[in-house]
Amino acid sequence: MSTYRAAFRCFAGCPGEYELTTPIYRCPTCNGLLEVHHDIEALRDRSAAAWMKLFDERYKRTQWPYGSGVWGKREWVAPEIEDNFIVSTDEGGSNLFWAERLGKEIGMTELWMKLCGNAHSGSFKDLGMTVLVSVVRKAIAQGKVKAKALACASTGDTSAALACYGAAAGLPVVVLLPHKLVSNAQLVQPLAHGAKVIALETDFDGCMAVIQELAQRGLIYLANSMNPLRIEGQKTVGMEIVQQFDWEIPDWIVLPSGNLGNASALYAGFRMMKELGIIARYPRLCVAQAANANPMYRAYVEGRDVVEPIVAKKSHASAIQIGNPVSAPRAMVALKAMNGVVEQATEEELSDACARADRTGLYTCPHTGVALACLFKLREKGIVLPTDRVVVLSTANGLKFTEFKLAYHERTLEGVPCVRANAPVVLPPEVERVARVIDAL
Question: Is the Cβ–Cβ distance between 151 and 227 less than 8 Å?
Fold first, then answer.
C-alpha cells in the first residue's frame, strides 16, 4: 500500500475531507466544486531530481501499468489505487510534434503541437477517464458505489472515452448526447462499445443539467469533468509536455476550452511540479474559445472574475459549444496564476486555421482550429513573440470530423467562405486531360 495520500476537498476551502472512492461531486457545505488534495509534504520525501528520474525510468514501459503516461506518475495522481483496479489503454505518451512549417508561416521558430488525439479513443479525455474508471472500480469492490451505471453528458469525446473504459472494465455506461449535434464518428464510438446512448433534444448544457440531477438521485455515477478525478488524469498532460522537453518549461500553452476542465487540469499539473521543485515558473496560458460559445472570453474582456452562463450558438467546434461551463471557477484561478489570456475564434477563422494547418502536414479537429486561430491572433498582436516556445494542445483526432473537413473542401460548410478549399478534379480517363492538370501545378 502506498504511503502517499490523496482526498477530495472543497475548492473554496470549506472544512472536510473525503476519500477518492466516495461518490461525491460537490462540497456538502457550500455546494461548490471539489478538488483532489495531495499530501505534498509526504511527496517531498523524494527530491525533484529523484522524481524526474523515476518518471523517466517508467515512461512508456511495458511493465504494468507504466505503459500509461498517467499511471507512470501514479503517486501524483491516485496513489492508493492498486494495480488490479487500474483500467488503462496505454493513454498518454502522445506525440509532441514540432510544427515547423506552420510555425515559419506565422514567424515562429518553436511551435509545437501536443497531439492528444493520438489516443485509444481519439481524444485527451482518455487521460482523465483512466483515473475515474479505475477509482470507481475500487469503490465498487468496496461497496461504496451502487449506482446503476457510469454516466456522462457529452458533445462526443467524453462519451467515447467513458464508453471505451467502461467496456474495458466491464461496467455499464450511459451517455446523454445532444441530438444531431455530434459527428457520426463520435456517435458510433459509444454505440460500438455497448453504452446506452440517449439523445436529448437539447444542447450540451441541457444534457448536463439532466445528468447532474440523475447523479444527485444516486442513479448514476457522474463521469463529467465536474468530477475532479477527471482533472487528476488530465493534469498529467502538462507534466508530460515538460518531461518531453527534458524537464524544461514552454513559454505558452494554448488550449481550446469549453467546459473549462482542461484549463484547471493544466494548472493543477504545473502547480504540483512547482510545489515539488521540478519547475521554477509557470508557462503562460491562452484559453481559446469559439466566438459562438465564449462565456470566459466575455468575462475576461469585461474584467470580471465570475464567468456568467450564456446560451451557446451552434459551432463547428461542437465539443466546446458550451455556454455554462461547470469548471469556470477552477479555470479562472488557473488563468490568473498562469498570467493567462482568453481569445476567441469565429467559425470562419477556426475553419480556415484547420485547413491551413492541414496543408503543413497536420490533420486537425475543429477545436484545435480554435486554438490555432487564437494563436495566430496573439502573434499578430505581438503578445506571443517569434522566439517563444509555444505548445498548442490538439484535443481530438481529426478523423472524428470527416463531415466537417469534407464540407469545407466542397465549399458547403455553413457560414464559411472556405477560401482554402481543395476540391477534387473530376475528369474522364484521358491521359492528356490529366497531364494538363498536372502541368498547371
Answer: no
Domains, in order of start, for the chain: 96-121+231-409 (3.40.50.1100)
Whether omega for the bond prior to residue 65 falls within 30 degrees of 0, making it cis, is yes
Cell of 264: 484547471
Q: What are all long-range contacts of 193-196, with beta carbons under 8 Å and residues at least 24 apart? A: 193/160, 193/163, 193/164, 193/166, 193/167, 194/163, 194/167, 195/159, 195/162, 195/163, 195/166, 195/167, 196/149, 196/172
Q: At 73, which amino acid appears?
A: K
Handedness of CA 357, 358, 363, 368 (dihedral sign): positive
Mean pLDDT by 10 residues, the chain (441 residues): 88 96 96 96 98 97 95 98 97 97 97 97 97 98 96 91 98 93 86 95 92 95 94 97 98 95 95 98 98 98 96 93 93 97 98 98 97 98 98 96 96 95 95 96 93
Give 256's strand partners: 288
pTM score:
0.95
Number of Cβ within a 10 Å radius of residue 337: 14
Q: Which of 321, 389, 357, 310 is nearest to 109 (CA)?
A: 389
